[in-house]
Design a protein that fits this description.
Elements (H helix, E strand, L loop, with lengths): L2 H23 L7 H32 L6
Length: about 70
């Protein structure tokens, strides 16, 4: 695995960790949940989308290098 691939995987893991932290900070029982639900939901959506885009970059990078590894 080259350095770029490792770095992209590390970023994906960080994004996943951020999503998990948001869920822990604002569970449905949080007193301000109703106030922040929409914004936290939007943030989680965009974090998830960023992860999907990084997956596409990883696959394209691996295909260009002639190695398709999953």
């Amino acid at each position: 695995m080259d350095d770029d691939t490792q770095e992209l995987i590390a970023i994906q893991q960080e994004l996943s960790g951020i999503s998990e932290r948001l869920r822990k900070i604002f569970p449905s029982t949080h007193p301000q949940f109703d106030s922040v639900f929409e914004d936290v939901g939007a943030a989680s959506y965009y974090i998830r989308e960023a992860g999907y885009r990084l997956e596409s970059v990883l696959m394209a990078s691996q295909c260009q290098n002639g190695k398709i590894v999953r």
